Input
Amino acid sequence: MDEKAKKLTFDLFVFILSLSVAWWIIKSGVVHQIIDNILPFQFFAEFVTGMLYTSFLTSPISVAMLLSLATESNPIIIALLGGLGAASMDLLMVKFFRKNTADINEASHELRLQRINKFLKTWNIEFLVPLLGALIIASPFPDEIGLLMLGASKLKYRDLAIITYLLNTAGILLIVTPINLLT
Output
């Protein structure tokens, strides 16, 4: 097995493990115990949950925590504070991506993004890449690929902060509002 296949297998294993931990957290009631213990620090919990919302390792756990928080708190406050936590983590990731441009070039080569970019430029639809990146960031899917798409653009950090904050806030709001309305 070559090195890329080993890395992909490991990443898949870690993601499945993360999903399993999230499922266990929901089924065991641990999230409710954690929420009960940190309710005096609820704003901090919502911020940290937002930070966990961005990574493929922690997004399933974050969604489990968001669902639990939605039964205890105002969905707008959860979304605003969670969006702030998520945007702060997104900016740290973009800063890391931009610092390590060799990693971006290697990742785009592995993902065969050059062919996709050439196709998009040929058909004059390259605006789809940042749009797709924005949709990924707004969704509960991990932000890494969406950030790679947005981070490769030459947006200023301030603009990127605003975009990721709004997108993550909207995504979190879409998760917590239905749960809050049902309870």
The chain has one domain: 3-176. The mean pLDDT is 77. The chain is about 80% helix and 0% strand.
